[in-house]
Amino acid sequence: MSDSLIYKLALSKIPNVGTVLAKNLVNFCGGVEAVFAEKLSMLKKIPGVGEKIAHSVYYFSDFDQLNTEVEYITKHNVSCYFFTDQAYPFRLKHIHAAPVMLFQQGQAELNARRMVAVVGTRKSTAHGKDETKRIIEEISPYNPTVVSGLAYGIDSCAHKAAMACKLPTFSVFGHGLDRIYPQQNTNLAQRILESEGSWITEFQTGTIPSPQNFPQRNRIVAGLVDAVIVIESPHKGGSIITANFGFENNREVMALPGRVNDSASAGCNALIKTNRASLIERGEDVAKLLNWDMDKKKQKQFQLPISLGPQEQCIFDTLKVYGALKIDALSFKTQLDVSVLAYKLLEMEMDHLVRVLPGKQYELI
After folding, report:
1. Residue 33 CB: number of other CB atoms within 10 A?
2. Residue range of the domain that includes 241
3. I want to staple 239 with a disulfide (CB 3.0 to 4.6 A). Which of 119, 149, 173, 295 is the partner?
């Protein structure tokens, strides 16, 4: 197990190798270990690799450091997810530039049914903090997992509000699991683990919280969830990066509006004005946009259609059990490729078996 993990860690350390290129390397070579045993001339021939990356793979020699990494992982009971693993978060797998490896401290469910990011400015106002608590309290009956970044301000408030409502919460780091940033939030981070939440990162131990790491961190915050909720943000900042990434990757983006002359909410207002975010005022708006209120409706008595093929039957049975699902969640549960699934869903929609809901979710008619 350790040998396989070491090679997965090694592949994740190669600069400019994302999931697409990593998949090409693994498939071409016949396995992750075989990647590092392949001839240099053959590595260069793999689509997308090129000479620079081929040299980085062929001459990779930092295996001693990776042995130390494996020792840390084992000692601290860290869960590791390679992008080909079935347990890799299905929402994250379908974003642009998904991380090759993901590390988790804590045992919270990465593929929970309902997951939302709640983000905002570090320089939050009292009003922003109050609104964060209120929104999370109002969505708490739906039992979502709350994801944020452990930063000062709205992020910290979101984690605290989630724990107060007995909701699971994830903190996504822009550094390794061997440190906490900001250091003043060490107690908060520990409370997250003690309340059955988790710390998440793509960075190996020893990685310091450099400024360039946090935009990368923000794409994971958006990639793990169904929706990004921006509570309070100026025109620029990490929460706007997170919201934009969510928008570009078909996540539902929501923003709480502020006064037109309030600089602390200028980013929220701009997201709404440019149609990158839906305007929300209360938790009920979040539930409606994500179709969570569908669970409260009377259960339907589905009639089994005749002449369904095996793939359509699998889709039908999955939607019958789980209700409305986004295509990436449906792909994870059915184990059908997204391109195949999209084609089958279109056929089933034309046959009046499924319909598309707001938020790009599918349900049985």
Report:
1. 16
2. 115-292
3. 119
